[in-house]
Structure formats: structure tokens, C-alpha cells
Amino acid sequence: MSGTVKAALIYPPLTDPTSGYHSLNYLDSYARAQGHRPAEIIDANIEAFHHSYTPSAYEWLRRELSRSSTDDLSGPDALMARANHLGLPDPDPERLRRSIGVLQDPNLFYDYRHYQDAVEGVISWMDALGAVGFPGQFRAGFRLQPPPMISIGSVAALTDEALLGRLNKPFQPYYEDVLIPRLAAGGHQVIGISATYQWQLPFALWIARLVRRACPDVFLVAGGTEISDVWKCASRPEYVFQVLADFDAIVVGEGESAYTEILDAVATGTLPAGHPNVRLHPKYGRQRQLPLRYERLAQVPVPDFSGLPWDLYLSPERFVYYSPTRGCYWNKCTFCDYGLNTDGPTSPWRQDTVGKMITDVTELSKFAKFIYFSVDVLAPATILRFAEQVVERGLDFRWGAEIRLEKYWSDERCELLRRSGCVAVSVGFESGNQRILDLIDKGTRPEQVRRTMTAMTKANIGVQMMGFTGFPTETREEALDSIAFLRDNPDLWTLGGLGDFMLTPGAIVAKEPDRFGITNVRPVEGSDIVRMLRYDEPVTEAAQAEVARAKADLNPGHFHRPWLGSTDTPHTFFYHDRYGTAVRGVLAHDRVRHDTDDRTEFLANGAFVDRDDEQVWDAYRRIRSDEQEGVPGDLPANRHLFRRTDGQVFALNRSSRLFLDLFSTPLTLAEAQRRLWIVEPAVADRVWRTFIGQRLIRRHQLPAPARPTR
């Protein structure tokens, strides 16, 4: 090995801007340990965001918005684009800069009043930025809402240059001014693009297309979970490299040794055909398909994160991901379809020794205060031995992980976890009904789960709950058991809630449909990359709407991923560290009407949606209705639609609009009451409480927070 190959590794949009991801650092650190030179690691996601508000990019954005048109679209796509354009905000780079400052400030970040305004400022900017592509394509700031044919995995859509170009247009100045010139001048022999999430795929494909044009001789490779999903879920083998046509090779599954062998091959002028996880483009000839290789964790070094642009992330602290295990030791859940093991739900279970984990986190804690164990699950005995050694050695860092709520976790053991720096855990409790848990093969009981949650909470460890309704044959009453479990134990969990069951092809449910009472199992119509299956099951379908309404009131949350209020984000761990299990109350405090608010100025936190074109307005109502926390048809046709600054839409009656219009300029509640003297004070007070609780109005002037004491 010469170690002379110059490589660049790119993490594309669209994904979490609050911290760097760890996939590329694992690859690079492994290759360096084998004698290769460090790669240039480019977080294009965060770089593209920051470039979007530079003076030149802002001027470009203004020009594009002034002449934006949907004339090149037709039919439903054109109507959707016109509808989503309703109510979109004007880009405000100064507000965005203030928002970024708050999110990176070690004091302001922890005042939720400031935090909310900051996140809404970022989301508002991204909404405006996305309007130059497909209006409405960005949700919650950094979540892609692409045209349906992209989201279901149509090969025709994923290879449509005009469609991909339009989706990528918001980042065009970054590509043209920064990324591609940098790569073209870099002299790289290998360029790798890693896509972890489905939202990143259209951007990874476009970047690959641009790289191939600018650097025709580079060896271009793709990897990451999403690339593996394309390979695994393609309904026909030839679809894989039809979608990934610009790549010389892809890495399927775990990539450390595969990436190193690619570097070795390029260094010697050969093809990396010997590693079973490397799939070469068909242009190189037919290749023998060998069984996938899984890494030996003892040979994987601690990742070096120093090459990431830490000053750019939207957080006040460094937060790194660490993976000392792979796979799941339980490996039985019938809904699960992780990994690439075709004989079971997840990839094979492996874990590092506790000694190596301690060595690794000792090194990582010198660099970052927060370490998240990015694993499917951690084994209880391993966690306990790890925590004991952390305490014995006096290591000072904060950590969290996803665990199973085993009865193993006594009060004493949970207290030890807290002393070792554990601030929160995430748990897939899945259901509050025993029959459904047995069908899932979860191996837990609701009462035992409640006891474990109690022990964690007593130790001041936040419990973030993840579950779902809609498992096949689940009745209305069984779904309500899950809702009641969370509703009746509000002091035992901090964030989370219940999603909706989705059937994936590799799950045991899909492989044994008769056992779970489902029929007519089929891909989503038009999908070629089949990530999700449709099926018929009348019992659960009959209860769907009522259950959705009940779930909507469970945990209103405040923001979707990647922000605080969602499960397992860096920001949630920062807040758990600062506020412990009281974090839910901290988030709720600003949504409550206080006695002093009579003298506080409030301002409308959004705007009503224009209703001039009834067809477009109705399309917007239907589109956004499906996105609410639950129920289709949640936005009645006879209501006024108010679009909050973060993009969430509310249906308000005529009288509510009369109240809300008062706050088009800053106004105190006392003055608003005087202007509405004909309205009973008790009625007006209920309206103010609703407006504040739903953040339809926000406090206009925020005091600088006092420095919190620990």
C-alpha cells in the first residue's frame, strides 16, 4: 500500500445541520490506520446551508424567486407547486443570522423562548430557499418533501435530469461556486459520497452527475445506508445502476474495509473486485456476487472527528456519534427490517469489549462533551460494566443510547448510569397492549416497562419513548391501550410518542402474511425501489381515523426532526443534560399564559394563506391536511388557514381570525382586550391561552436570559 491516493468523502444534503455524522469519519480513520493518507471530508449539507445566505447567493435567491414559475410543470405537479407556494415567507438573511447565533450560543440556546424563535427563523429561510425548486419541498427546514414519484422510488423519476436538477436548484450556487470548483482543483483520484437517509439520495445523485462532468477520470463511489437500501430494495437488479449510473462502484453494507480496498486498488491501477461488499458498475463486466462481509469491531479504530467543520453546525456544543456495537442482540421483532441480513430482521450482532469502549470514549471525550451511542441497541450487562468503569476512572462526558426496557434496570443500576454521564435513553416500547407486543415478539410486558421507566426517571435520566399504532390486526381498543399508556404516565417520559406502522419487505410480517392476518401484500404503485409495502387488513384500517385523532393530543411536541422536541436529536440531549427529566416542563413553559402577559407585547407568528384562487387554495388545504399530526381532513374547507412561521398550518374559524388579526403589529393582551371590549374577558382569555399554547402569537420582546446554574 502506497498511501498516496488522494480521496474526498462527501456527505450530501439534506440532513441534520446540528452535528456532523460519523459514517465518513469511521471510513477515513480505518483507512488511515491501514496506512492511507487522510481524506478530505466535506459536509456538503452544512456548507450548502451556510453558503445560501452569503451576499451573492442571497442576490441569486431573490432573482430566482422574482421570476419563479410553474409553467414547466403540468397536471398535479403544477397544482401542487402553486399550492405550496401559498404563504411562503420572504427570505430574511438578517433574521437567519440572528437565529444561527442563538443556536450556537451556550446561553441563549438553553432559553426555550429564544430557541423557538431561532428554529423558526431557520425553517422560514429554508422554506423560501426551497421555493426555487419545488415550492414546499423542504419541511421542518431539513426534511425533504419531494414530488411523489421521487419519494416512492420510481427509477424514471430518479433518473430524470430535469426533475433532479429542480430539486437541487436551491443549492445551485453552492455547487457552482464552491463544491465543484473545489473538487475539480483538488486532484482527487477517489471521490466517495455517503447517503444515510432517503432524503439525501436525490442530492447525492445530482452531485455525482456534476462530479462526473467536472472530474471524468476520478473513481466515483457511493455508500451508506440509503445506497444499501437501493441495492436491497430494487425490484429488478438492473435498476441499481440505472439509478446510480454515474458511480464506478457502490459499497453495500459496512464500508470500512471495502473503502480501504478501493484505495488499494486505485493505488495499483486495478479494479476493487475482490471485496464482497463492493459492487462494480456493469460497464466493468460481470462480477461474481460473494456473501457480504461484516467488520470485526476490534479492528475498527476510534473515529477521528477533527476534520469536520464544527464551527458551522447549529449547536452550542460538540456532539459525536460512536458505534461500539452493530446489529441487535434481541433480533426477533417481527416488524424490523434493519441491516442486510436476508435471514433475519437485522444484521449480525457484534459488540466491542468494554475495555475498548472505555479507551475509545476516553479519547472522544477529549474532543466532545456529548457522545451518542449510535447503535441498534446496547446490551444491559455491557452498559453496566461500561458505566462502572467510567465512574471508577472519573471520566467526564455526557452520553445517551437506545436500549431495551429490561427488568434488569433496578433503581441502583439506573443511578449508576446517571453518575456515569447518561442523560437520556431512547426506547422502542412499541405498544401498550400485551397481545400486540406478543405478535411483535418484543419480549416485554407493559407493567415491567413502567417499572423500568420509573427507575430511570428517579435517577433523572430522560426516557424518550418510541412506539406505533396500526400493527396488523390491532383493534381500536388495543391502539388506545398504547395511547393510554403514555397519557397515564406523563411523568415517566420526556419526549416521543406514537407513529404509524409501516410494512417493509424484509420484515417477518411481510414474509409470513397469513400469520399476521394481512392479504394482498403489494408494492406501492409505481415504485421500483420498494422500501414499503401496501396490504389489506380491515380491522386496523377501520380504526385508523379515530386512533389518529387520539394520538394527535398525546404529545404536541414543538418541532420535528432535527430539532428539540423530536426524539434522539443532539438538541434533545443538550436539553436533557441541562434540565434533566424536567425538560418537558421547560418546553411547555413558553406555551402557557402567565399573569405578567397582560403587559407583554405579542405578535402574530405567521400569516393567513391567500384564498384568491379557490382551486389552488383547496389543493393547499388538502396537501397540508395530510401532514398534520394525524388525521387526513384535519383542515376543513370552510376555515381560514394560518401558516405558522415554522410551516405548520392551522384551520381557524372566522372569530379566531378577528382575534388574531389584532396582532399584526405588537400588542399587549390588555390592549387587545380593550379593543375587544364587547367580548367577555373569560372568553378572550381562553382565546389568548389557545393562541399562546399553539404559538400562533409569540412574545415580541425576549429578555436576555440569566446564566443558568447547575
Total strands: 24
The percentage of residues in β strands lies in 5-15%
Mean pLDDT across all residues, rounded? 91
**What is Rg?**
26 Å
Largest sheet: 6 strands, mixed
The strand line-up of the biggest sheet is: 2-1-5-6-7-8
Any low-confidence stretches, pLDDT <50, length ≥5? 705-710
Q: Kindly name the structural category.
A: alpha/beta
Shape: globular
The amount of helix comes to 40-55%
Distance between the termini: 52 Å
Number of helices: 28
Question: Mind explaining what this structure looks like?
Answer:
Keywords: Iron, Iron-sulfur, Metal-binding, S-adenosyl-L-methionine. This is Radical SAM protein. It comes from Micromonospora chalcea. The chain is an alpha/beta fold and 710 residues long. The protein contains 28 helices and 24 strands. The strands form 7 sheets. Strands 2-1-5-6-7-8 form a 6-stranded mixed beta sheet, with helices on both faces. A 6-stranded parallel beta sheet has the order 9-12-13-14-15-16, sandwiched between helices. The chain has a 3-stranded antiparallel beta sheet with strand order 23-19-24. A hairpin with a 4-residue loop joins strand 21 and strand 22. The N and C termini lie far apart (52 Å). The C terminus is likely disordered.
Summarize it.
This protein has 710 residues and is an alpha/beta fold.
Using brief descriptors, characterize the structure shown:
710 residues, alpha/beta, six-stranded parallel β-sheet, 28 helices, 40% helix, globular, disordered C terminus
Fold blueprint:
Elements: E1 7-11, H1 23-33, E2 40-43, H2 44-51, H3 55-66, H4 75-85, H5 93-104, H6 112-130, E3 138-139, E4 143-144, H7 148-151, H8 155-158, H9 161-168, H10 172-184, E5 190-194, H11 201-214, E6 219-223, H12 225-233, H13 238-243, E7 249-251, H14 256-268, E8 278-280, E9 319-322, E10 325-326, E11 350-351, H15 354-364, E12 370-373, H16 380-393, E13 398-403, H17 411-419, E14 422-430, H18 434-440, H19 446-458, E15 462-469, H20 476-487, E16 496-500, H21 508-511, E17 519-523, E18 533-536, H22 538-552, H23 570-579, H24 583-589, E19 601-604, E20 606-608, H25 614-625, E21 640-644, E22 649-652, H26 654-661, E23 667-668, H27 669-675, H28 681-693, E24 697-699
Parallel strand pairs: 1-2, 1-5, 5-6, 6-7, 9-12, 12-13, 13-14, 14-15, 15-16
Antiparallel strand pairs: 3-4, 7-8, 10-11, 17-18, 19-23, 19-24, 20-21, 21-22
